[in-house]
Amino acid sequence: MLKRLARSLALSLLAALPLSTLAAPVSVTTHTSGTSAYGDWVVVDALGITNYDYRDQPFELTLQSTFDTDVNTNFWWGDKLWIFGADLTVTFRIGDETFHKQGKGQAMLGSGSDSYYQQVSFYDSLGNGKLVDFTNYVMAPQNAAAGDPLAERDASASGERVGSMGMDAYNANPDANGLWMMGDYATNASVTVVSSVPEPSQWAMMAAGLVAATVVARRRQRT
């Protein structure tokens, strides 16, 4: 009888949890590195990088987007998943110069059996009134199902053209034309997708804790 009561209480309490508690935040991180053969001065200037040699410079681009598909607006466009209002972190190093920024923006994700695609852009403009799209493309066998960019994975590759990075700069003013692009192949590339969905044992511990709290509260009421 007591076990049935506990099970019933656990289920009812879990059902009463707010959606934010039952949500499934996801964090996607991609990284590429290699040598930039040639850079675009408009893109580099928009990132606030002024002391820069435009040829044959080592680069690293790390993109991270964190979001919750139960909270953040999202939809599929072809084979890509668009997510709005994501928490973004971008770190770009070229030569001895580094650009780093955190903020809100949108992310676009896609995955295949041996590839992963991540593009992010901040809502606010960067230097000189420019918006910038940052893209990492990872060519590595994925230890997750193709076509599901939210599935957990940890894949990496090294070698010639195992991925690529790209940055597209354009005017924040929609009435002003202009598109400037910069990109290079990567000799190292990786992707990590992590979901914070609680394990079954964690759900059980949560339920047990809720039941225990309820029982203690009832005993106190009786006394």
From TrEMBL:
Pfam families in alphabetical order: PEP-CTERM (PF07589)
Domain Ice-binding protein C-terminal: from-to ranges: 196-220
Signal peptide feature range: 1-23
Swiss-Prot/TrEMBL keywords: Signal
NCBIfam families: PEP_CTERM
Protein name: Putative secreted protein with PEP-CTERM sorting signal
Source organism phylogeny: Bacteria, Pseudomonadati, Pseudomonadota, Betaproteobacteria, Burkholderiales
